[in-house]
Amino acid sequence: MSRGRLPVDRLLSSTGPLEGINEAFDRLHAGQIIRHVIDFEGA
Predict the structure, then answer these.
(1) Residue 43 has pLDDT above 90, yes or no
(2) Which of 4, 20, 23, 24 has its CA 20 to 30 A from that of 39?
(3) How confident is the model at residue 34 (pLDDT cuts 50, 70, 90)?
(4) At 16, phi and psi to the nearest 5?
(5) CA-to-CA distance for 21 and 28, rounded, in angstroms?
């Protein structure tokens, strides 16, 4: 963290539409990803 800014791109490991939330939870549970962001714009 430099100059009070968070490196958001490095904190996220996955993005996807709401329709894929069940798969995202499966991947989170399996340890394949750490953070997932739901992309409502791409839906």
Answers:
(1) no
(2) 4
(3) confident
(4) 180, 170
(5) 10
If you write DSSP's letter for every residue of 8-37 in order, what string do you get?
HHHH--EEE-GGGHHHHHHHHHTTS-S-EE
Q: How far apart are CA 38 and CA 43, in angstroms?
A: 9
Q: In whole angstroms, give the CA distance from residue 15 to residue 18.
A: 10
Answer whether 24's CB lies under 8 Å from 14's CB: yes
Q: How many CA atoms lie within 13 A of 7 on its CB side?
A: 5
* Tokens matching residue 12: 């996220």
Q: What is the model's pTM?
A: 0.65
Stretch 32-43: mean pLDDT, rounded?
84
